[in-house]
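Lab meeting prep.
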Amino acid sequence: MSEDSQRNFRSVYYEKVGFRGVEEKKSLEILLKDDRLDIEKLCTFSQRFPLPSMYRALVWKVLLGMKPRSW
């Protein structure tokens, strides 16, 4: 087995038992680093994955229009 297939196996296994992947957190951090936030991408992300507690309030404030989209 190659390194990639082992990682994919682990990712699938962890997802099945209910653990969030590190990739999801990194993806959210990448979305939040942009100068102008993409509301559609944030909305899609928040629907598909649980938001980490450290970013939850910020993301919801942006999605609800309480925080500006650009930093």
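Slide two material, second protein:
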Amino acid sequence: MFMAEIQRYEDKGSIVMDYIQKRDGYYIVENQKVPNAAAVIKQGVDRGISTYVVYHHADEKGVEVVVKARTRDGVEAEEWVRLEYVTEAYKTFLQKMLKKIKRKEITREEVMSTGTIDSPWGKIPAFPTPDLQLEYINHLIRMYSFLPRIAVTKAKNRAILQLLGREFREQEEIEHEEMEIKEVNQQIQEEQTPAVSENQLKYIHALINDWAKRADVNPEVLKQQIKKQIGVESLKEIDRNQASQLIEALKKKIQSLKTETEEEVIE
């Protein structure tokens, strides 16, 4: 009976893996198969990892989400993701155009951006022909429907990877992606960096309160120390990039406090 259950489980697993592969559940990095987000989330589910959205906010520029992943024994990981509509639309549009270039349906010169133009979405890339410009705008409009789901999936993927204790992508690929996003942002964003968002501020205050609770200190004292270190009178003075860096630093500090607590419990 026991062996029959194992065989049934293995058969089911084979069916699921075949299904994932048919859905292109893997992509190739340096001639190696790497599971995509769907495959990673599937592995998380198989290991009893649950995920839930802490908060989700969309504004005229993009989407912010925070997702927590939790194992059966209560170990948690948290990921914050913000995606900009124009940035993601430009990135995915170029990927689409590159496929057309490889198929020789269009030349590289025909899709080279000639700068930026004003639009209802702010500054967007300008393309050489009206047809291509219209195709990009239609792609951008579709992105407004898909980006919230993409952001949640990306955050789930990263949170689960934390708990699985591995990063499937090569470091070089991660660095290239970060450079690509940075270059796109520099090209299409306005010269002035946007101010910190309301949701970023809420998340920062929540992380500071979490830190204070774990360290048994006054959260207001922590806030004053952080503001002094950054060199501002109020956290509202920081820009969005500084807020992102602060969020990452706070998350690392909280994670270190969690680790210290776990080690004390073990001792």
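Talking points for slide two:
The mean pLDDT is 76.
The longest strand covers residues 50-58.
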